[in-house]
Amino acid sequence: MPGSGLQHGLFIAPYHDVIESPTIGLRRDLELVEHVEKLGFAEAWFGEHHSTGWETIGSPELMIAAAAERTHRIRLGTGVVSMPYHNPLMVANRIVQLDHMTMGRVIFGMGPGLLPTDAEMIGVDIKSLRAKLEEVAKIIVPLLSGEEVTHKTSWYKLNKARTHLRPYTLPHPEIAVASAITPSGGMLAGQHGFGMLCVAATETAGFDVLDENWKIANQVAEENGQRMDPVKLRLVVPMHIAATREQARKDVEQGLARWVEYFDRVAPAGMRGMSGGDPVDILVGAGRAVIGTPEDAITMIERLQAKQGEFGVILFQAHNWAEWEETKKSYELYARFVMPHFAGTNRNRQASYAALASNIDRLESERTKGAEAAFKAWEEKTGRTA
Prior knowledge:
- By secondary structure, this protein is of the alpha/beta class.
- About 50% of the residues lie in helices and about 15% in strands.
- The radius of gyration is 26 Å and the shape is elongated.
- The termini are far apart.
- Belongs to the bacterial luciferase oxidoreductase family.
């Protein structure tokens, strides 16, 4: 991961209201990645969903391919590929191809699949999803490394399988696994040394177990000869930022209500509970989201740091609560004020300004004395007064 310190990214599920144009929504997702790259964001992640109507990206790989041609620096992740819905060789081939197409900017995020309606529609037993992900985890590293794999399960068979291309990134592209509330994601990450993508970091149930799941991941990693790297720990946070809290509340007045109506239906039981009141009050009051100012965003991230300890990336959840211009402004305010705060970008500038404020009277006195001396020397030389 380039750079050091806390990095910042974008997590695009996406959320597009079923009354709006899906074409415009998808085009704006790509435009948004261009926008945040210019602002200094380090990563952008695209989800995979196949039902419910709102989360319209069926292939994160297609979005990454398109975004890669519009950008130059930002890393692009699958957030996440629902592995029980795919043959792992086909997924590995697509990721390795993207590794070449992006010249090393792709990150492979995988998970069991969030939407039960996806699994039901294609006839996959919902109860089997985590076990299927664990099966894939056993062979995904050698596959992405270009090695030959023979592996048989109840739902796929690989016979001397290997990717068509060897990876651009050696030994293989970075791998992350989704983690929400249960310890299963952390256990899987620890077993194989994967990064973790905490999609429910600010949800009440997710926040409560945030540090505990990381401890579990580290314990399992030690047992398996692996090491968890906190730089590859990513936390997702829903935020909308404006100049004032009142403006932020006004910006999301319509879109947030529609999103809550959707999310309270589709989210796991531990992540619901936003209906039946003012959604801004509910989300902000419970610490589940930032709807406010850059200072509120800073407070949220520092709260996560106090709970979790060190982690590598904050992923700003893209949710389309506000209109397009206000949405872009939200990311700009984050980049202007929140990112510099954690990078210490302005430390020297602020020290210089503080030195100016505390010393200007003394220095101005010296400057005046210097000017007076220059006038006096001129008078003595010319015999004339200024």
